[in-house]
Amino acid sequence: MILSDADILARLETGDLRIDPLSDLELQVQPASVDLRLGTEFLEFQRANISCIHPNRADEVDEYVESTHVSEGDEFVLHPGDFVLGSTKERVAVPDDLVAHVEGRSSLGRLAVVIHASLPTDEEVFLWTPDEGFGFYEIGDIVENERSARAVSFDPQTLRVRTHQVSDHIRNPTKRIYRVTLESGREVSVTRDHNLFTLDEYGGVTRIASEDAEGTLVMVPDRLPEPSAPQTEIDLVELFGPDDDDITVFAADGLGEVDWSDVSNGVRRHYEGQSSAPMSATRPSSLPSAAEMAFKQSDVRLPRTLPVTTDLAWALGFYVAEGYRRRKQIVVSNTNREYLERFASVFEPSGAGCSWYERDNGVTTLTVCSALWSKVFGELAGEGSEKTVPAQAWDWSNEVLTALYEGLIDGDGHRREGRDTLYTANGDLVSRAMFLGARLGLLNSVYHREREQYIEMSDVSNEGAEWAVDFSESGHKRGQYVPTPSALLRRYRDRAALTMADAAAEMGYSSPSSVANVENEEWRSTNRETLRRFRDLYLDYDVDTTRLDQILDSDVRFERVESVETTDRVEPTYDLEVQPNGRAVENFIGGRGGVFLSNTAGLCDPGYQGQITLELSNLGTAPVALTPGMRISQVTFTRLSSPAKRPYGTERGSKYQGQTGPQASRIGSDPEFAERREE
Fold first, then answer.
1. Model pLDDT, residue 113
2. Which candidate, 285, 268, 272, 276, places its Cα nearest to that of 250?
């Protein structure tokens, strides 16, 4: 739980939380944070004559930086492209039951002074926007245009997935991009130090830098939120666009405003005789909702608002999997006649003609002869190798999306007991399909192979990767494991007053080691079914198992990081700040298939004492004058589920404890460099 201003002031009063000097409570204490001021010391990094820095050699690190003192009342000018280390004026002492998150103030971020690192510009995030609803957006588009959006985020307290308002848009320094791949095939491109999420031994949400995440179970969505008001109709005027010359609008009771200036008199009389007009001549705002659409002068007409039905959704899924379009036709082929008849039934009521051709190999080809329907399907789901889940689909109900999913599987999938598999050569469809599975509560994973393929029925050749996306409702080992909440289970057993032997016996285990292996972290991850047995046991002893319930019944699950790879990309990155009403919802979802990502707030561990080093970068085009004493950052405090067993400063080389002023990297003192130091 994030401390409110009242909680912060109370903890400051008792003295276990210390911020010193805190000279102006009225100014610095915000509703759920404390503003920290800029100190007088800076470390500047040399730009030239640096061939290579070895992190394990302190002399090289020291030669790389130069200290600068700026007196109170003077200015430190941060030039475009500069990266320096500063520090807070205040010293902070974090008690053992809190963790502190440090962020740059958004007011400075708007001057291009930032301390974050996250996603490259073209990485997709799953958001809700007021204009377009749920969908996939490039993070660069959201940040650069400061678009209003709600991010799909999990709540660390309840582990429920909801949408939360994006509170800030951040452009970050140029950094190397790394590719994080999970065992399921989910993938995201991030900076190396960007945080993912896992659970600590008490079942609390904790962050792990991507550079350290290989082999770790991290959070992905198990379920995605439904829209509060699902879309039930598609406005064909919005779908086609108001300037479409191929579409004719019919309205017996009037078309509203019509601009006939680009229409010859003879053609105009023809249109008016049919109570119609080219769409490009109409004004969408004045068109009646009862208008009908046709492709030029075709007899096939559709209402302006096309109902979103399960039959339409199934047909779209089947088309994505098995079909292609021409200007005036939709063509699908399959060995199952029933599927083709179901597909045809969507179009026949509107007067569209259907033709059938049975091949000697048992494949039947169905051709829907309608330029209008071809255009509708092309606009909704794309064409050729780019066919995918419609952008509008994320605002449809789960009932409708289930039908779309079934159409995909019926068209180009394989069903077996407990599992469906979709095959495709379209990488974009892979990601959309995985998100679709998460929306419907289906476990999913993906794998691929390189191949050449000629699809005779569609007369299409594919060369490259073929993907297989697996879906299952339950029982798949992937997604069934959770980082072991060992300390939480020990606490529950203590409250139940049971020995390990007693607990093991009551759960039907033959040896106490079955409990000991879990409680002592011998097993770093634990099957959900095993955790349910622990939960059910302790419930019988009236133990409050709320946190374990939240983990077992959450909207998130955990997947293991398979690899963290260096890419050739070195570029600016982008970030979204999601922290509504001061609550600790500092995450959003992105990447192929969906991975939860941190908005990279700086972290001060429980037990930390000292000034806080700040990473300052100027991403703008003009120098920015920084003045010692100005409010430079803000710190929030999150209460842990229990006090840290090994707080910072007690062991494990807490190398920045008690720091004064900015400190350069001391990574050389890490244990992994011990042998190199001795050389």
1. 54
2. 276
